[in-house]
Hints:
Elements: E1 3-7, H1 10-14, H2 17-22, H3 35-44, E2 49-55, E3 61-67, E4 72-75, E5 87-89, H4 95-101, E6 108-114, H5 120-130, E7 134-147, H6 153-158, H7 162-171, E8 175-180, H8 185-196, H9 206-218, E9 222-229, E10 239-246, E11 249-257, H10 266-281, E12 286-291, H11 295-300, E13 303-313, H12 321-338
Parallel strand pairs: 4-6, 11-12
Antiparallel strand pairs: 1-2, 2-3, 3-4, 3-5, 6-13, 7-12, 7-13, 8-9, 9-10, 10-11
Helix pairs in contact: 3-9, 4-5, 7-10
Amino acid sequence: MVKVDYHSDLKEVQSDGQLAQALSETHQSAPFDRLAWWQGLSQHCGLTPLLAVARGTDDALAVLPLAGKAGHLTALSNWYTFRFRPILVGAGAPLDALAASLKSRAHRITLSHVPDEDGSASALETAFRKAGWLVLREVCDTNRILPLEGRSCDAYLAARPGKLRTTLKRKSGKVATQILTEFDGEAWAQYESIYAESWKPEEGSPDFLRAFARAEGAAGRLRLALAHDAADPQGPAIAAQMWTVEGGTAFIHKLAHREAARPLSPGSVLTAALMRRVIDVDRVTLVDFGTGDDPYKQDWMEQRRARYRLDMFRPFSPRNWPVLARIGLRGLAAGAKRG
């Protein structure tokens, strides 16, 4: 017997001992898989949550954090989320039953940035197809990673592209770096100032990011780094990066430098300093640079993983017919072009 519940108020989940424990840092070693992350998205990023939970026998769970209303649900995630996946607990986690139940809640479900190195995309595709949904799957993004495979930081840096190694050799003495493992309000204000003067677009939700950094600092997982011009060490910081470390992985969340400081390459020097910290001190086995295939990430990372978009439609819902018609026409056009 499988029971399916839906929670639009995430505070309800906190009072459910089994569920809250399954979604806590005790059992989930990445921030994107935890209740606290989804609560932050709901509180600071304007997302309307709908947590779908299926409970099977022997405490098996299938949890799908969704958002939205009006029959079209999406992943409870945004630009801060490296990857989105269902949380499956125990043997026989009832994902099939969850997919079937969702037919009464939505005519369409769109999930982006789903990984498949852990089988998540395939599991979702199989479960929703089995439940009668029409499932379209496509690559939507790239995740760049660095498996350390036991290397020291010196060995890792020695294998970087020649141009990057030359930059680090020439610029490291001109940039002073500092790495904090606790949240510091003044340091965070410097990060926000740097970000405002960087090439980056406007921050999507500074309140979310600040709250996340504060919580990670309290848990000992934060690595907040600042760079100064070595010729003016008491002056304003010229580059900043925010990483977190847990479960053997270093996650690179944010990085920025002041455009005026570009000739000093402070971003590269700061990344190298953080790499030395997480590799030689924190002893991580993997560095995750999040989504996006920017050229500079290729200098630091060595492997890439696909992120998938799954679009699930109830095929007999009239509300889906216009979009399915457009998808069909695009497919015909692509076929004609190939022909």
